[in-house]
Design brief:
The chain is an alpha/beta fold. Helices cover 44% and strands 14% of the residues. Helix 3 (93-104) crosses helix 4 and helix 5 runs parallel beside helix 12 (318-332). The termini are far apart.
Amino acid sequence: MDIFKEMEKHGFEQIIFNYDKTTGLKAIIAIHDTTLGPALGGCRMWPYETEDEALMDAMRLAKGMTYKCAVSDNNFGGGKTVIIGDPKKDKSEALFRALGRFVQTLGGRYYTGTDMGTTGMDFVYASRESDYMVGLPEEYGGSGNSAVPTAYGVYNGMKAAAKIVFGSDSLKGLKIAVQGVGKVGQVLVGYLKEEEARVVIADITEENINKVKEKYPDVEVVECEKIYDVECDIFAPCARGGIINDDTISRLKCRIVAGAANNQLLEPRHGDVLHERGILYAPDYVINAGGLIQVADELEFKNDEKRHERVMMKAGAIYDILLKIFTISKEQNVPPHKVADRLAEERIEVIGRLKTNYVKR
């Protein structure tokens, strides 16, 4: 990969490769754009097959965070960390403390916390070496589990999409296929069942399936690969990204794609294909912004007894943001992901221009 060419193409400011000889830590920190404020983005741990794969994941996720911050009215930029390793075998206190020391060297340009493959306790360890960890468990002074506002935002985003497609924002009786019932997916299923939606699930982990079935016995389970073929009203990707691609789009039998996963489109053109097929796509970085909203609130307001109420209100407002995007999309016949990109870029440009005037602080 020509790294500088990719950075120029996608507007990246900084990519840091971090190696710790004591723990064997191999981590990549990607900082995309800090026009609106310091970069904010979680840390993912995954057994990537190649370093190029890890780098591309970090870059795609970091850029997505820039747009997510911008469109959700938060004053942060986009960043991401990926750790190359198996979260089931390679974790240790020392590993995350080593990561914390590397993040500390950035001096506040970047804040990080949990993502796929990492937990709040991992960042309790990292916080012993760094002042720039967010989303710690509440008992350690953080804002706690971000899965709840993330799932709540996705739920409200689904309702906005349903209003456009079906004329009502009620999900009662709609069939919703949820791909991935991990931390966010499980909470999302709860919201859907409360509204009496019909739910089909798939997950690579049997433990996750069992947790959902224990609570909601009537939920239907299908094999992971067959989730794309389920006839449903809404397909909800809530696992890894890149799952909307040339191989899967033709198999989808839904009217709406709306889920919690990051980078659902393998390439931007796949959003165009969904639009051409008449499938309404809720841009991932818009609908799944609930977790970001929580950690951004943690940084902005510190300890505040009204945090949960405020965060859930902001996550609920994802409904209105998506209605605006869908309405523009329909009026101008432009795919929703392009409308969302345009709104995010316009905000970054306008705020960036304001900063050209010196103000003493």
